[in-house]
Amino acid sequence: MKEKYYFDVFPELTSERLFLREIRLSEANHMIEITVYDGHQAQNSRDVIRILSQIALDYLNGDGITWGLYLKSTGEFIGNCCFCRGYQNNIAEIGYVLKPDFRGYGYMTEAVKTVTRFGLQDMKVTQVCAYTELENHASQSVLLKAGFVKTTHDEDTYKFISP
């Protein structure tokens, strides 16, 4: 089973209102509030650069890919969407975060659909999954609107899978 994914060129994706592309280190000041890696929240642009460097290493190692989300209308960075934690058994785990001012407008559902389609059609992963905390109803709503199905849960999380 394929558990690493390498790309000759970073795959850029588009949706109706979004452009999904590689995040540039020069954009670190615009993403402090939403940058987290392995549970560690960035406190300043230096932390963001350290985290972006780790994300880039994950990409180069074939263990993940993170797209920045940019509005087509303005080019503004609004969040990110990624495949993270490797691809055990050829399954991609999706993760995402959106700046608070842009929540509730369907941007993340649009991004999740776009990234999921890329994973299933272009990368040929067999499934895309996501995990949410039990109380994270907004994230659960995004996944359900994107066509995911809630399958299981433990005492802390729900698991969702692509159809």
TrEMBL record:
InterPro entries xref list: Acyl_CoA_acyltransferase (IPR016181), GNAT_dom (IPR000182), N-acetyltransferase (IPR051531)
Gene3D superfamilies: 3.40.630.30
Entries under SUPFAM superfamilies matching the protein: Acyl-CoA N-acyltransferases (Nat)
Domain N-acetyltransferase as annotated: residue spans: 23-163
Protein name per UniProt: GNAT family N-acetyltransferase
Taxonomic path: Bacteria, Bacillati, Bacillota, Bacilli, Bacillales
